[in-house]
Each structure stands twice: as C-alpha cells, then as structure tokens.
Amino acid sequence: MFKRPHFTEYVMARLVTIAVTLFVIFSIIAWLVVEDTKARLSVIILLAAAFAIFIYAIYRGAKRMQNELMTINRYLKNIEKIDKIDYKVHFFTQEFEEINQNLIKVLKKAKKREDIKQRYNAKLKLKNKQRADMLSAIAHEFRNPIAAIMGYAQTLVEDPDIPKSLHDKFLGKIYNNGNKIESLLARLILWNKFESKETTLHKSRFDLCMLADEVGRSLEERYHGRSVIIEGEGCIVEADRTLMEVLLKNLIENALKYSDEEVRVVIDHGRVCVIDKGVGIKEKDIEKVTKKFYRSGTHNWDNSMGLGLSIAKTILELHGSELEIESSIGEGSQFCFTI
Fold it and tell me: Which of residues 155, 172, 195 is at a domain's end?
C-alpha cells in the first residue's frame, strides 16, 4: 500500500532534485567559462557548499513546520480526551499561529458541548430516578387504601346480613380510604404542575387565622381525638388562598402524623409556626425532609410519597418566602414561615 511521505521528506525530495540539477548546470557552466583548473574546482566546491547550506537551511525550516503540523494534529486527534492545550509551541508564521488560535476555540467549544452533554445525561438520570421513585411511592401509597376498600366491599357483598352498625362502619372505612386516594391524586397533580412550571399565583386578601382555623377543624374531624390549637387573630395577608390552604394542611397534617399530643399553630404579624411535640428530626435530616420523595428510614415517616414538605417549600418559594425548620429528637419540631 502506498504510504504518503512526511512534509519534510516531500520538501527535501523536491529540493534535493532541484538543487542537484542546478548544481550540475552551474558546474558545467563554470567548467566551460573558467579556464584555470584550480579556479574551476574552487568554484564548483563553493557552489556545492552554497547548495549544501541552502538545503540544510530549508531542511531546518521544513522540519520545524513538520513539528508544528504534528503538534496541531495531536490536538485534533485527541480533542475529546485532552482538557486543555498545554503544549508550549512558538509558531514562526502567522498562518500557523492563527491555526493554533482557531484550534483552541474549537477545543473550548468541544469541551463546552461535552460538559453540556454530561449535565444533560446527569439530569436525565436524575429524572429517571425520580420517575422510578414516584412510581414506587405511588404503588406503596395506593396499595393500602385500595386493599382496604376491596376488603370491606367484598365483605359487604358476600355477607348481606351483616349487622347495620358494622355495615355503616365498613362504609365509613371505604369512604375514608376513598378520600385518602383523592388526596394523594390531588397532591400528585399539584406536584406535577410545579414540576412543569404551570402554576400561577392568584392572590387575594384574606384572614390567615380564619383559614388556619378552617384547616385545623377539618383535620380534627379526620384525626379523631386530636386537637389543633390556633393562636392568633386578625392576620390579613395577600397571597394565593388555595395554595396557602394546601400549605397549612400539609404542615399541620405532618405534625399530627408524627406526634401524639396537640398541635399548635401560632400566627403573629404574618409569621406562622406549626409546633408539635413529636419524634423530632435528626439534624442531618433537616435539609433533606423538604426534598422530593424523601423518606426517613429511622421513623418510617408516611409523608404521602415524600411530597408534602416539598410542596410546602415550593409554595413558599412562589410567594417569596422560605420554610424554616427547627427540631430536636424526642422533643418535637416547629415549621415556620413568614408571608
């Protein structure tokens, strides 16, 4: 297979051919023109020396150009592997210097595209993991209420003579589990809106204390025997009432789930604190509890797919506020925000 010559080989082959031809021509002319034999030899030797110096000078220049071309070729060959151009090359022609500068630009663009690609792949992996976590959480959260509904319904169908008190109790269980499924679906829909950036605020003026009292009463009906105490009065705010209701419900219900005593909601000049005396949160877990799908294995928290506090955090961010969490293991927690 024919192998192409290197740059220096190509230049030298052409140059030597031309130089030898010229040397022979000039030597013949000198031999014919100069009569003295010694003078002829001197002229021919000088011609040979001149051509040799000329060839050597061209060889050095061609070799230098070949080295620079090889350096540029190394860049191009390893453009996806090298992080930066660190070869210390001093180009002696403007054209090679411009090629080097353009090569640096190409390398920077290539690395930038590679960084973007890596970030995109990392983001895609995270999204896939979140999707898998969400499906797992949905399956986990929906399994129990669906199983309960099917169990109670099957009992009612198979035993038409069941006592009325037990019949009504089973219907109540079915209704409560249906409400739980509806609540889970509503939370998923809201989370999806947050993820797709489709949520817009519809602000209005309302009494935050009255809203907290309404939410507290509705949760007391769901959590029989539990108390939600609202401390504060006459706190008028301008916010999205629907989202504020979701926020208060998530925080208060979270406190009811993980404590056995009363839950206090203290409202003072737009600052709201939901306080419980429950199991508390480890210091290393405080920053994690507001992340999507996060669950604490220590206390086996049922946080409705791990979205409750994440939704609360997002609602506050939409209102230009943030969720402040203070907690001690065995003493309880308080979740505060200012609106």
Answer: 195
